[in-house]
Design goal:
The protein has 113 residues and is mostly beta strands. It has one domain: Hexapeptide repeat proteins (UDP N-Acetylglucosamine Acyltransferase, domain 1, 3 Solenoid), CATH 2.160.10. It is 0% helix and 23% strand. The protein contains no helices and twelve strands. The strands form three sheets. It has a four-stranded parallel beta sheet with strand order 1-4-7-10, with no helix packed on it. The radius of gyration is 14 Å and the shape is globular. The N and C termini lie far apart (32 Å).
C-alpha cells in the first residue's frame, strides 16, 4: 500500500489489494478479496462487501495499455457495496440516509458493452 492514504479505524479482510494513489476515509470496512485500484477515493463510513472490485478503466482490455486513461472512482460517505460487484470508474455512488429502510434503496446493475 505505498502511496495509499488510509484513515483511522479502518478494517481490511484477507487478500485485499490496495494500489498506490488510493484514498480510504475513516471507519471504512473492507471485506476479504477486495481490489481497489489507483484513483479510487472512498469517503468515511463505507462498507465494501467480499470480492468486490473497484477498477479505474471503463473498458478494460488485456492487449491495450490504458494507464494514460485511468479515471477516478468516488464512493460517497456511508455507501455500502454488497458482495462481488464490479464497479467501473465514472460512477459516483451516493449514500442513502441511514434512517431510510434498505428495501427503498435503488438497485443498480451494470453490463459490459
Amino acid at each position: 500500500m505505498p502511496g495509499a492514504v488510509i484513515g483511522e479505524r479502518c478494517s481490511f479482510g484477507q487478500n485485499c489489494v490496495i494500489s498506490s494513489g488510493v484514498t480510504v476515509g475513516t471507519n471504512v470496512k473492507v471485506q476479504n478479496n477486495v481490489s481497489i485500484y489507483e484513483g479510487t477515493v472512498i469517503e468515511d463510513d463505507v462498507f465494501l462487501g467480499p470480492s468486490c472490485v473497484l477498477t479505474n478503466v471503463t473498458n478494460p482490455r488485456s492487449q491495450v495499455l490504458r494507464r494514460a486513461l485511468y479515471e477516478k472512482t468516488l464512493l460517497r460517505r456511508g455507501c455500502s457495496i454488497g458482495p462481488t460487484p464490479l464497479w467501473f470508474a465514472v460512477l459516483p455512488l451516493v449514500a442513502m440516509p441511514l434512517s431510510e429502510p434498505v428495501q427503498s434503496w435503488p438497485r443498480m446493475f451494470l453490463t459490459m458493452p
